[in-house]
Amino acid sequence: MSSQRFLTGITPSGTPHLGNYVGAIRPSVQASLRSDVESFYFLADYHALIKIDDPARIQRSTMEIAASWLAAGLDPERVTFYRQSDLPEIAELTWLLTCVTSKGLLNRAHAYKAAVDQNTAAREEPDANVNAGLFMYPVLMAADILMFNAHQVPVGRDQVQHIEMARDIAQRFNHLYGEHFTLPEAAIEESVATLPGLDGRKMSKSYDNHIPLFATRAQLKKLIAAIVTDSRAPGEAKQTEGSALFQIYQAFASPQETAALRQAYLDGIGWADAKQVLFEHIDREMTPMRERYTALMAAPEKMEEVLRAGADKARKLATPFTAALRRAVGLRDLRTSAAPLRAAKASKAALPAFKQYRESDGKFYFKLQEPGGRVLLQSLGFDAPKDAASVIKSLQAGAGAALALVQAHLQALPGVSQDDIDSALQQFADNA
Ligand code: TRP
User: Whose CA is closest to 25, among 47, 38, 43?
Assistant: First the structure.
């Protein structure tokens, strides 16, 4: 069996913190070492433009995040590690997908709906301050995923709806243009911890309770000292449950070390000492990584080289795939022979249908019309609608009988051949 393809994007919109490390970077780097997995990791800088209009911040964050992943042990030889905007194919695929995505689907996206709800609550226009990039975000994300036919997309819960949308969009495209895309699935790591922040809530930049991944030793010490604890004095037994300090320690320590700290809590370790234990532990784990990080940040040309090599690798797949998709939708070399028009092989979902109507002469008519609007058959006038209906019924009953009726009740239309009529009726009989 061929290996499973994992793909995930990281939006370069800030500086990574310990929560990102524990929740995303560390498990991803571990997964990338598995031999049955083919991994794609990319810096989603097109996505970052939705939120950030400060060019220097995008560049800075792209660099910090690339350096973080590399410092944490991601091996660019083993995985495909690239910057989204180095692949113009992504922007192109986004457009092809945009044209098969219903606007209603995007109206229902959580991120967009949340923005609209906020505006409504604030008595603003529903779309106030919503850029079209935010609205289109799920389509861009679908392009990221579908371009590489990823099977599994490791994401947080908040992103699951986007993966479902990518599936919907892929299905629609496949239905229209043939089986081009694998339907992706969200891979949610249940076991991966969400790290609490300094105040005990989930560590997040927006709560301003985070510890930067590559804080200096001094910063790290200061931030750890700021972790919220209760007021129990040294010597009093402490509770591990609900202790942010304990949970952060657990995310970095072995089970034995965790058990030892649990015992120390029971034995009444003072908060200052517990913080010292945590600080020493994280600092020990981070020091070699921090050194690699600092070296990488000082060598932008080296990272640029790594990312460009990654883009070359990714484009080996993306360029020919995009060319095939262009052909599939009809963006084609005019010298290639034209395939038959889709109308000639209408699928079950797009069958011609009978429509009854009344004309200004007072008579009742029907026509056989393709979903695209082309009229294949048009009846003569009937005096009563039930007469028209009974002819339609006969037509639907069987192509053989219908053909006889064609002679008696229908007029030929310019540009419609007998073959067109025969094949439309035949399909009708086959699918009735
Ligand atoms: N939207 C994701 C996030 O904010 C980042 C992302 C962009 C992504 N494209 C992706 C994740 C494709 C998985 C697959 O976290």
Answer: 43
